[in-house]
Write a structure and sequence with these properties.
Helix content: 40-55%
Number of helices: 10
Order of helices and strands: HEHEHEHEHHEHHEEHEH
Largest sheet: 8 strands, parallel
Radius of gyration: 19 Å
Strand content: 5-15%
Number of strands: 8
CATH architecture: Alpha-Beta Barrel
Length: 298
Amino acid sequence: MELDFTLKKYKRLIQAIAKSDYVVFTIRDYLQLKEKPAKLILLRHDVDMDPFQQLKCAKMETDYGIFSSYYFRYTDEILKPEVLDEISSLGHEIGYHYETLTKARGDITKAIEIFRRELKYFQKKWNTVTICPHGGATVENINAYSLKDLSKLPFKLLFNTNLFSNWNNREIWGTYSIKDFGLIGDAYLSIDFDNMLYLSDTGRSWSNKYKIKDVVKTSDNLLHYPKVNRTNDVIALINEGAVGHLYILAHAEQWKDNFRDWLKWLMAQQIRRNGKLGLKLYWKITKQNQQSKIKDTI
């Protein structure tokens, strides 16, 4: 049985897309379309870690004539200009993966200042015109993608009651406008999902079970399709061609090219999955307690 979430499996996904009748667009090109084809795929990558792994996927896609959008976080570990330059030279879009409300710890005024400064760097270097919010980093001071860091979590829970953050980076647009920054759109907010099936590999699964922020509202007619859990399900969906518009989010770091890394990543993701289920329950109880306190004061 072939393992899922390997570079070999990702190649099979790209091959299926290349052989299909679907037209593939970057987010930038899609938002500038005057007329949309009957069958299309938006292909997006959020670069949460390991920029060099992104380059492997970018080269693979270019080999099959496919061009996608790569959204990079503004961190020292991820923002490697030489990697972004090469991905851009291959024909892919470079976008800004912003997390400024998290960095500003909920201060919207400070968050927009950080946003303006970081975006300017992307615009100057790679002519960035679209952005995408980062939904991770819900566990402060923990690299939630590292098995080593995740192993420290139980001890931190005992001594830190302010460990979790629940800021949604999209919320800065309730106060400010994307258009004021020379942008044409946001990879979530500017997309009409009413007739588009959204598929994401967040959590090393195509299922929504373990997702907290990486979910979208879609029309009921798209919910009748069989549940997609594995990459083979995505490939089958593409081969079938029954869904007109598909939006695929793939994180290159999910797709490993050797068994050791694959196994380590599987273990880390299992811990993260259980943690996410716990976070959902934690925030639900916290919200209920807050609502109860409000009622008591009325």
